[in-house]
Write a structure and sequence with these properties.
One of its GO terms (molecular function) is uroporphyrinogen-III synthase activity. With 248 residues, this protein is an alpha/beta fold. Helix content is 33%, strand content 21%.
């Protein structure tokens, strides 16, 4: 199994200093970047079917930049003017700073956790326990946020504002790879949707994270590379080691 052409199911890195480019140059390997999934907003009509009023709330919880984009785009589409008094609670500082794209950033109304985990944002929410919280969500989500807010008796409403869909391949797109790299179970689902007769044969498959690894196995595919590990904490480190071994 010699690796000459790799498909990474993520957008192409914006920085020329990405380790992926170093790997391609070091081993003479072609690396293509092509997301298998994309995120899209619900329509205003679909959102209204949930019978949720955003303006009944005094605070919004954001767990990702996707949530911010689709929250504000749907509000704009529905001509909802968010009041200046609205507070924003974000799981990380990066997400909090991203709000500047849509509203004037003021520390007294933007709060964020230290680690990116919702559990670490929770004490700030509990401190502001008189607020009514709105939680924009994806159609694919776990119930951690809801369960923790319920447990702490916080007033809140969840609503789906965006969804993950398959980013379909066109007939013109060549699919002649020696290795495929996936980062989410949805990516595996998209592979099987785009190529229902997919036969793995000598194609190596790599995955990042335990849920993606499980999705590969559940699809009846062979998992050749799993990251992160102690020896390879990133996908690029794992890929470098894998290609070095197989192309030696």
């Amino acid at each position: 199994m010699k690796i000459k052409k790799v498909l990474v199911s993520q957008p192409k890195p914006t920085s020329e200093k990405s380790p992926y480019f170093d790997i391609a140059e070091k081993y003479g390997v072609k690396i293509d970047f092509r997301p298998f999934i994309k995120v899209e907003s619900l329509s205003a009509k679909e959102f209204r079917q949930q019978k949720v009023s955003i303006l009944d709330h005094t605070a919004v919880v954001f767990t990702s930049r996707h949530a911010i984009d689709h929250f504000f785009s749907l509000c704009s589409e529905m001509r909802i003017t968010i009041p200046e008094t609205m507070k924003y609670f974000c799981t990380s500082e990066t997400i909090a700073l991203y709000i500047q794209k849509y509203v004037q950033y003021r520390k007294r109304k933007v709060f964020f956790g230290a680690t990116g985990k919702f559990a670490d944002l929770l004490p700030l929410i509990v401190k502001h326990n008189t607020e009514k919280y709105f939680i924009p969500m994806s159609d694919v989500h776990n119930d951690e946020v809801k369960n923790l807010l319920d447990k702490n008796k916080i007033q809140h409403t969840e609503a789906i504002m965006y969804r993950t869909v398959s980013n379909d391949f066109t007939p013109e797109e060549k699919f002649d790879y020696d290795m495929l790299i996936f980062f989410s179970p949805a990516g595996i689902q998209s592979l099987m949707k785009n190529f229902p007769d997919f036969e793995q044969k000598d194609i190596a498959i790599g995955s990042f994270g335990p849920t993606t690894a499980q999705a590969v196995k559940d699809a009846g595919l062979r998992l050749d590379l799993e990251a992160p590990t102690a020896a390879a904490p990133s996908m690029t480190a794992a890929l470098d080691m894998f290609i070095r071994k197989h192309n030696a």
